[in-house]
Amino acid sequence: MQFIPRIFTILAFLLVSISSLAQINQTDVDDFVRIYASQNHLALEDIEAIVSKATFQPSIIDKMTKPAEQTMTWTRYRGLFLTDARIDEGIKFWAANETTLRQVSKQTGVSEEVILGIIGVETFFGTRAGSYSVLDALYTLAFGYPKRSAFFKAELGKFLELCTRENLDPLSIKGSYAGAMGYCQFMPSSYLAYAKNFDQQGSTDLMNNVDDAIASVANYIQVHRWQPGKPVVTKAIVTDSAKLPLAKQSVKPSESIKTYQNMGFQTADGSSTNEQVTLQEFVLDEGSEYWFGFNNFYVITRYNHSPLYALAVYQLGEAIKTKKAN
Q1: Residue 166 known to be catalytic
Q2: Domain 23-65+130-180 carries which CATH code?
């Protein structure tokens, strides 16, 4: 009687395997390989040899449908990144890379603490850069995630281009489940567009060269119009005359603080400015808190479009700076 459970186990395995394979249209893969090879004047068999080694990973599809930024309160999201362990790691990272951080910040105008905040949130200062095969991740999303298939096909193409340009092994690179790589978690297109070689020698390596990573984060933020010396956010206070609930606001600054004052929101320090801001609501486990975001807040959201992300980056950088000074 022992053979019955074994038969069911084998059948279940086969059904899962067939289901997984069914989510990849091989004709779609073949068309991509053929077009990419033709457009880039490469040997078809060389591209086939790489792409054929990619494996469909169903768990990646599951993760793509449940991003933390859409399911977490600010209380929980902040709790992931504003920890003593991450702040202490940031202080160590700053001490180990102080010269590079100072030089890059001076050249770009991007504050050291914002560079630290981004690397800290993205990869815990390079210690958690991802364990997924980037090739598998991009393959899975390009051919098994119809909602964003066009985007990930383009990223897969950029990944192949990147590996050729920087002499990288496409089979060995690890990253996030979305295909982001290195200390700063650049997608392949961002790697090609914004990666910066710190000493301008050799290849630009964001997986292993921390100087390149620091320079690249700052370059990305600078190109997206960071304003040196300008504020990022300031806390907003809700007065008795506030009109709640607050309608969803664009993350891009478009109103003056005076406009929001007329709606019943004041700055925590009572200050005012003619600069345009956005007013963002951050939902807590109980209640909400509100922050005025300036242009530099918007710039951080160009790295990741979530306001939760931008505020976490800012607060982590400030927490590291404060604890380092004490």
Answers
A1: no
A2: 1.10.8.350
Model confidence pLDDT, tens digit, residues 131-174: 999 999 999 999 999 999 999 999 999 999 999 999 999 999 99
* Active-site option among 112, 122, 155, 281: 122
pLDDT for 155 equals 98
Strands (E), 231-315: 233-238, 255-256, 265-267, 276-283, 288-293
Token pair, residue 9, equals: 């186990």
> For residues 281 and 260, is the Cβ–Cβ distance under 8 A?
no
Q: Return the closest-CA partner of residue 231 out of 312, 117, 111.
A: 111
With bands split at pLDDT 50, 70 and 90, how would you rate the model's confidence at 9? very low
Residue 30 pLDDT more than 90? Answer: yes
CA atoms of 109 and 226, how far apart (whole Å): 8
CA distances from 304 to 43, 55, 183, 317 (A): 36, 27, 15, 16
- Alpha-carbon distance of 305 to 192, in angstroms, equals 20
Question: In angstroms, what CA-CA distances link 271 with 157, 166, 195, 247, 262?
Answer: 49, 49, 38, 23, 14
Tokens of 41: 């004047």
Smallest Cα–Cα separation from 302: which of 205, 220, 238?
220
Distance between CA atoms of residues 286 and 289, nearest Å:
10
Question: How many CB atoms within 10 Å of residue 248?
Answer: 8
Domain ranges of the chain: 23-65+130-180, 233-293
What pTM, to 2 d.p., does this model score? Answer: 0.90
**Cα separation, 174 vs 1, whole angstroms:** 45
Q: Which pLDDT score, from 0 to 100, does residue 69 have?
A: 64
